[in-house]
Design goal:
Shape: globular
Number of strands: 7
Number of helices: 2
Strand content: over 45%
Strand order of the largest sheet: 1-2-3-4-5-6-7
Helix content: 10-25%
Length: 164
């Protein structure tokens, strides 16, 4: 039996080479999972704060006073991750209700929110890539008293005139 240092190093190197692919095949999925967890918050309260916020109040017939909030942060290339939410007091039991009306990407924030008769109106803009020409997207919401929530309706442009 050879007990020299060269022989021991060679044996150790050979066994490490045999185990490396097995370790790598187990380590890669763990590394990928770890990196995904770093890139996506797991709970809403872990998400970073909004860079900018806009808030205000309006009213809708049959609902009353509504507080709105629009938060957004840059995601690059003149696009913004945004969330638009509303809060109001239920006419049934007086409890405070909250609903997210929009989560997604928009350009040229903040979105505008206003009440028009029995509708809650939201307008946001999306721009063509590399252009300053933007298209407004209008979404009218009607309050559903039975569900105690707002629902987007079709033909929004007829229900909500664009603000000036």
């Amino acid at each position: 039996m050879d007990l020299s240092i060269d022989s021991a190093t060679e044996i150790s190197t050979r066994s490490t080479r045999r185990r490396s692919p097995a370790l790598a095949s187990r380590a890669l999925p763990l590394l990928a999972t770890f990196l995904l967890q770093l890139s996506f918050p797991t709970r809403a309260d872990e998400a970073p704060g909004w860079e900018s916020q806009a808030s205000g109040s309006t009213s809708v017939l049959g609902v009353g006073a509504i507080q709105y909030f629009s938060g957004y942060r840059s995601v690059g290339y003149d696009h913004f991750e945004a969330e638009i939410s509303v809060r109001w007091r239920s006419s049934k039991d007086g409890s405070e209700q909250e609903q997210i009306l929009y989560e997604g990407i928009l350009d040229k924030p903040p979105a505008k929110v206003w009440g028009h008769g029995s509708h809650l109106c939201v307008v946001m803009q999306a721009c063509a890539r590399g252009s300053d020409r933007c298209t407004p997207y209008l979404i009218a919401h009607r309050y559903n008293a039975a569900r105690q929530s707002f629902t987007a309706v079709t033909h929004s442009s007829r229900l909500c005139p664009l603000p000036r």
